[in-house]
Design goal:
It is a single chain. The protein is an alpha/beta fold. The protein folds into two domains: 174 residues, Thiolase/Chalcone synthase (Peroxisomal Thiolase, Chain A, domain 1); 153 residues, 3-Layer(aba) Sandwich (Peroxisomal Thiolase, Chain A, domain 1), CATH 3.40.47.10. Helix content is 31%, strand content 23%. It is built from ten helices and 13 strands. A hairpin with a 3-residue loop joins strand 12 and strand 13. Helix 3 packs across helix 4 and helix 7 runs parallel beside helix 8. The chain starts with a strand and ends with a strand. Coenzyme A binds next to helix 2, helix 6, helix 7 and strand 12. The site of coenzyme A has 21 residues, from helix 2, helix 6, helix 7 and strand 12.
Length: 334
């Protein structure tokens, strides 16, 4: 039986630090409100003159490849999770392929928002188990800052999100690495967290740039209260599903990395599961919610900090737009 394992992880975040005080200067908000409701102290925003989703992903990927001891030319499949691809089409996977100097290998984009990285990981796992690919680059990267309404009108959403990229290299392994993945969605809630435009369902006459009088459809719309209520339920369900599928209990988890949506959500899950602080990794304080980037960035930092060691049981869990939610249970292998 061939399994897949995570052979290396990397990340890259833009240089520009956006503090809560900076946001308080451009909209009616304040540090206390943001920290109390979200746990976020600062996030990174791109410099549009320098950063793209694909080039941030390339930096994260090079780090992951180096740590895995894999040359870029040995990558045989790219899976790119993002909802903020550089172009409306094509996806950013092909742009990453170009940045890495590769030609002809397949590149596929996955547009499942905050759950996107786990969806991509699950897809990579299947392709490795079947023997089709040997070095799969799995990426989650986003530029959220350019889609935020950075005025008081958008404050309920704008204070949460940030930019960044993370990557993992998956390889075949005789020892179990990825133990199981669990994917879900419920499209009834698609419009509760979404960016509407540029939507193909707009009538042709409304798609002419000069006809677009209301540009709010290009900004992130989020029903924060509803998202919160569904997130806490689905996170718990999908973590339990992963544990049950492997005949494990919460005591078997060495490290839980929840998608960094909101520190209150992470703290709620931690408390419900009864996990001690050292078993839950959070970095939302420094980066905000980087959507598909959040889990691989956190994995990379947790590994750097020595919090992921050989044979550790790592649980990943996510919830986001769609709604989509997902989990993965991994036997970490050095
Ligand atoms: N600064 C100051 N006040 C703000 C604010 C801000 N940035 N954003 C909203 N407020 C105000 C509201 O206007 C409202 O004022 P009112 O009571 O006078 O009407 C009050 O704060 C409460 O707003 P509400 O939206 O009910 O706050 P909340 O406690 O639900 O917190 C979120 C808002 C967005 C932080 C919270 O709903 C949340 O985290 N939801 C989940 C979001 C998430 O995880 N998204 C990603 C999923 S992947």
């Amino acid at each position: 039986m061939t399994y897949s394992k995570i052979a290396g992880v990397g990340h890259h975040v833009p240089e520009t630090v956006i503090t809560n005080d900076y946001l308080s200067g451009i909209m009616d908000t304040n540090n206390e409100w943001i920290v109390e409701r979200t746990g976020i102290h600062e996030r990174r925003f791109i410099d549009p003159a320098r950063d793209t989703v694909a080039n941030m992903a390339a930096k994260a990927s090079r780090m992951a490849l180096e740590r895995a001891g894999v040359k870029a030319e040995d990558v045989d499949f790219i899976l790119f999770a993002t909802i903020t691809s550089d172009y409306y089409f094509p996806g950013s996977g092909v742009l990453l392929q170009r940045e890495l100097g590769l030609e002809s290998i397949p590149a596929m984009d996955i547009k499942n928002a905050c759950s996107g990285f786990i969806y991509a990981l699950s897809t990579a796992d299947q392709f490795i188990k079947t023997g089709m690919y040997k070095n799969v680059l799995v990426v989650g990267a986003e530029i959220q800052s350019t889609a935020l309404d950075l005025t008081t009108r958008g404050r309920g959403t704008a204070v949460i999100f940030g930019d960044g990229a993370g990557a993992a290299v998956l390889q075949p392994s005789e020892q179990p690495g990825v133990l199981s993945t669990h994917l879900h969605s419920d499209g009834r809630f698609a419009e509760e967290l979404y960016v509407k435009d540029p939507g193909s369902s707009r009538p042709h006459e409304e798609r002419q740039p000069e006809q677009i009088l209301d540009t709010s459809g290009f900004k992130v719309h989020m029903n924060g209260n509803l998202v919160f209520k569904h997130a806490v339920v689905r996170f718990m369900e999908v973590i339990k599903e992963a544990l049950d599928a492997n005949d494990m209990t919460r005591d078997d988890i060495d490290l839980l990395i929840p998608h960094q949506a909101n520190l209150r959500i992470s703290n709620y899950i931690q408390q419900k599961l009864g996990l001690p602080d050292e078993k839950v990794y959070n970095n939302i304080m420094r980066y905000g919610n980087t959507t598909a980037g959040s889990i691989p960035i956190a994995m990379s930092e947790a590994w750097e900090e020595g919090k992921l060691k050989n044979n550790d049981r790592l649980c990943l869990a996510a919830f986001g737009s769609g709604f989509t939610w997902a989990s993965a249970l991994i036997n970490w292998q050095e």
